[in-house]
Amino acid sequence: MRWILLIGVGLLVAAGLSTLWAQANPPEPPKFSSDAERHAWILNTFMPFLEQFRAKFHNVPRSDGEHLRWVIVATKRRRALEIGTANGYSALWLGLGLEATKGRLTTVEIEPSIAKEAQANLKRAGMLDKVVTVVEGDALKVVPNLRGKFDFVFIDIGPRALPFFKAVEPKLTDDAIVAVHRPPSPGALSDLLDELKRRPEWWLTTVQTGAPTGIVLALRKSP
Ligand SMILES: C[S@@+](CC[C@H](N)C(=O)[O-])C[C@H]1O[C@@H](n2cnc3c(N)ncnc32)[C@H](O)[C@@H]1O
């Protein structure tokens, strides 16, 4: 019995160490001869590497990332804002869309060490400070001081999104789309959904991308 326990603990420690080792040894990008090559490396090598750590960073599922990229391109978004960067996984998807529309993303992360990790990942993807700028700080304080307006906002902050929605509202263009990640916890986003139900000028739809999570998309009806 003691041996079984020891083997179990040993296996757990080995699994933990191998995850730590993998995280500390990300694939480094080769020299790319075109953006198409770089994009293929991001999609086929770098993103699958990052997806191993999805639970640790609470990243959106790949299906959500694909959906976000699609919305950016289909609706020709150019000035995007993300709240909740984590290690930059969703910022890579948004960045891919914005490279197609020649747009830019500002993404805000409160944890300094995580913001640094996002910067390193976006640099590997060739996007840092060209397509994506990472701002370290509390979005509730940072967003009111950002310059200009945004035509796309992605809020990925957990089950309570209303304070962040209110912080971005004055920063939205008239035709802005706000996408909010709905985590799988019961009652997630009820604060925001209840508020927007009382404001019929906001039109909503929920896209069940990676069940049981999804993305709520909101836009303001033209006056
Ligand atoms: C769900 S994760 C974001 C995942 C990321 N969007 C992705 O899919 O790759 C939420 C992140 O928001 C950050 N965060 C929490 N409160 C914040 C705040 N007030 N301002 C900015 N970032 C915050 C957390 O540190 C965490 O990294």
Structure write-up:
The protein has 223 residues and is of the alpha/beta class. The protein has a single domain, classed as Rossmann fold, CATH 3.40.50.150. The protein has 9 helices and 7 strands. It has helices at residues 2-24, 35-51, 54-57, 62-74, 89-101, 112-124, 139-142, 162-168, 190-197; strands spanning 79-83, 104-109, 132-136, 150-155, 172-182, 202-207, 214-220. Strands 3-2-1-4-5-7-6 form a 7-stranded mixed sheet, sandwiched between helices. The longest helix has 23 residues, at 2-24. The protein is globular and about 70 Å long. The mean pLDDT is 92. The site of S-adenosylmethionine (SAM) has 19 residues, from α5, β2 and α7.
Topology overview:
Elements: H1 2-24, H2 35-51, H3 54-57, H4 62-74, E1 79-83, H5 89-101, E2 104-109, H6 112-124, E3 132-136, H7 139-142, E4 150-155, H8 162-168, E5 172-182, H9 190-197, E6 202-207, E7 214-220
Parallel strand pairs: 1-2, 1-4, 2-3, 4-5
Antiparallel strand pairs: 5-7, 6-7
